[in-house]
Amino acid sequence: MTTISSKNIWMRRQQCPCGDWKCYVSYEGDAEETSMASQLVKSETNSSSEAMVAPYVGMVFKSDDDAFEYYSNFARKNGFSIRKERSRLSPQLGIYKRDFVCYRSGFAPMRKKLSGEHHRDRKSVRCGCDAKMHLSKEVVQGVTQWFVVQFSNVHNHELLEDDQVRLLPAYRKIHEADQERILLLSKAGFPIHRIVKVLELEKGIQGGQLPFLERDVRNFVQNRKKIVQENDALLTEKRENDTMELLDICKATKETDEQFVYDFTVDENNKVENIAWSYADSVNAYSMFSDVVYFDTSYRSITYGLIFGAWLGIDNNGRIILFGCALLQDETVGSFVWALQTFIRFMKGRCPQTILTDLDLGLRDAIQSELPSTKHVMSICNILSKLSSWFSLSLGSQFSEFKSEFDALYHAESAEDFELRWSQMVPMFGLGSDKHIVLLHSLQRFWALSYTRDYFLARMATTAYSKSVDAFLKRIFIAQICLRSFFEQVGISNKLQNQPRQEMPYSHIKTYVPIEEHARRILTPFAFNAFQHELVLAMQYAPSEMANGSYLVRHFKKMDGERLVIWIPEDEQIHCSCKEFEYSGILCRHALRVFILKNYFELPERYFLSRWQQESSLVCFDDQEPQQNHDEWFQEFQSLTKTLFAESSITKERSDYIRRELSKELTRLLNEVRDMPESDGLAMDFALSPPE
Fold first, then answer.
1. Mean pLDDT rounded to a whole number for the chain
2. 352 burial type by CB count under 10 A (0-12 exposed, 13-18 middle, 19+ buried)
3. Cα–Cα distance measured from residue 234 to residue 3, given in angstroms and rounded to the nearest whole number
């Protein structure tokens, strides 16, 4: 009976973004072809080797398998093959007799034909040949040995030549490496005769010299397809059962948590196709940080054949937010359209300002259809991860140089500069007809920085954020064996993301410019560190005022070129040609240099986006009870301290005693608190200050 593993393995999708399976297969094939073509197949027979000693009566073997292998090798070198005939069993010794005979031994049994049935009349190769080797097992001083008790090498048929004996069924073996190659080519759509031809070319041998026949390849492919079909049937049943269980879990979760949301679709047979869900905390977080959403669709379940889509964001402390997730049956435009529609409905009709995705044509079309006012950016980190599989084989030693050129291309200042660099790079590496180069160029406005620089991405297009996403998703996919446990793990990960954690510490003041201290009071540590980095670098730039009141800002070594900074004093507005503020929400070094020149002690409020401010907090969205409890506790603390100081100030003895004992007690309490866990799932979002 065919069985399948219940382990639910999630892997990154490998299909080419153009949707063509053969793109991936052709790469795999080329890589393997290169390595295999360099190796000549070793002859299955070695007629020039020394003749083997013929078996003889009394010959000893350690096991019956050793005896069969020896006799088989002897038979091959002498133009025939053998098969196992009879064996005899005893309670004391187990199998103690073995008979090996020539493949033409005996006669084919007569078949009885039932009326109405038609059978092909195949001529049997059996002709009553009496060549044989009989073995007997004996235990000598506790050691088991097999002795040849009868041997005959007399045949009543012609023996085959070396080039013929290799084609006997006993010697026509398709080795594992060849099996994998055959299945790969078959999956790519190659017919059987083409597969055989490819194998011959790869091995560097003439036609008909493979150690197996074309019909062996055909039988192997057909048998494997049968096994795959049986596995597919079991997988289909498992998927249907587990998806129905997942749907039941969503319904149960909704009954206990009214703010939990989910939706699903069914096919014509009323089987669950797609399912999506989100949590109350996720919906609340989206109301604050909906400006940018990353829709990751890079993982697929091998067991269920489902694509996992995760809607992710970033909070004011630079941490990942899970807005929701979906399991999709495929990556067609229709599935993505449903996913986007469902997500926007979960989020009460609010569309993101920018959506960041992987490189996927179906997803692009769905976004253009459902989110026409949302700016779409394809992740450069996702593209860079594909470059090696796309170009390393064809470019070889030039691949490192190509990556450098591609990086410079990505950072091109303008669309014109991009096109110029592209027209130089493609012929430089001979990639004019490469399908992936054509694909990248057709999608340039979705990923090249010269086209997306003024799209707000909230620092989500960085390598650091991409690594955080990978780590977050890998925690979800650890050792999941069914959709139930997968759903539970998603919920656990979502709760962990929303729990308060020790925040990133503020950096020390570095420039002592007043606007640095002002920004430190407003921004979160994550945003302030990015701001401070730009402010420190601003000191290396020199502004030159132009006639119209704008500025050209240059690096003192001219390594960064020059930037045009437009200053509008009436509205206190500033615009830099680098568009860093539009891209990340953090003022750039060039704009900050002009503000310093203008003797600004504090920056205008518009340059501190609310999403980066300390007040933008995900802690206790709608539940004010914890904060009220903290306020009551703080008032009680203040009352006790006032009373203590009042009572201790009556006499010097009291005052000295309180100072001495209070210091000891506070030190003890502080040490005990520090030994406690940093988080118990409740947010302590308040600060202590001495009474006025």
1. 82
2. buried
3. 8
With CA atoms as reference, report the closest residue to 503 among 259, 684, 237. Answer: 684
192: nearest Cα among 227, 229, 222 = 222
Residue (of 115, 108, 112, 150) closest to 130 by Cα position: 150
DSSP, residue by residue, 433-476: T-HHHHHHHHTHHHH-HHHHTTS--TT-SSHHHHHHHHHHHHHH
CA atoms within 13 A on the CB side of 182: 24
- Give which of 353, 294, 421 is closest to 583, Cα–Cα: 353
Distance CA 554, CA 546 (A): 13
Kindly state the DSSP code that residue 498 receives in the 8-state scheme. Answer: H
User: What are the contacts of 233-241 at 24+ separation with CB within 8 A?
Assistant: 234/2, 234/3, 234/4, 235/4, 235/303, 235/304, 235/305, 238/4, 238/6, 238/303, 238/304, 239/303, 239/304, 239/305, 239/306, 240/271, 240/272
Q: Is the pLDDT of residue 234 over 80?
A: no
Query: How many angstroms separate the most distant Cα atoms in the chain?
Result: 127
Reduced to 3 states, what is the DSSP secondary structure of residue 566? strand
Q: How many residues does the chain have?
A: 692
Residue 125 is encoded by which pair of tokens? 């190769």
- The span from the CA of 455 to the CA of 376, in Å, is 9
Phi–psi pair at 651, nearest 5 degrees: -130, 160
What is the DSSP code string of 499-550? Answer: S--PPPPPPPPSS--HHHHHHHHHB-HHHHHHHHHHHHHHTTEEEEE-TTS-
Which of the four pLDDT bands, split at 50, 70 and 90, describes residue 12?
low
557 to 382, 537, 554, 560, 564: CA distances (angstroms) = 34, 12, 8, 8, 17
Residue 99 CA to residue 83 CA, distance in Å, equals: 9
Q: What is the gyration radius of the CA atoms in the chain, in angstroms? A: 38
What's residue 408's pLDDT?
92
Contacts of 269 (CB under 8 A, 6+ apart): none
For tokens 């109301």, name the residue: 287
Encoded tokens for 113 = 């034909």
d(CA 2, CA 355): 44
Residue type, 335: S
Residue 669 — pLDDT band, cuts 50, 70, 90?
Answer: confident
82-90 vs 60-61, strand pairing mode: unpaired
- pTM metric for this prediction: 0.62
Choose among 261, 314, 260: nearest CA to 286. Answer: 314
Asked if residue 129 lies in contact with residue 156, where contact means CB atoms within 8 angstroms, the answer is yes
CA atoms of 241 and 271, how far apart (whole Å): 10
Residue 427 structure tokens = 């012929």
Give the up-direction half-sphere exposure of residue 292: CA atoms within 13 A in the CB hemisphere. 25
Specify whether the CB–CB gap between 545 and 338 falls below 8 A: no
Task: Choose from 206-210, 283-287, 557-561, 626-630 the range with maximum mean pLDDT.
Answer: 283-287
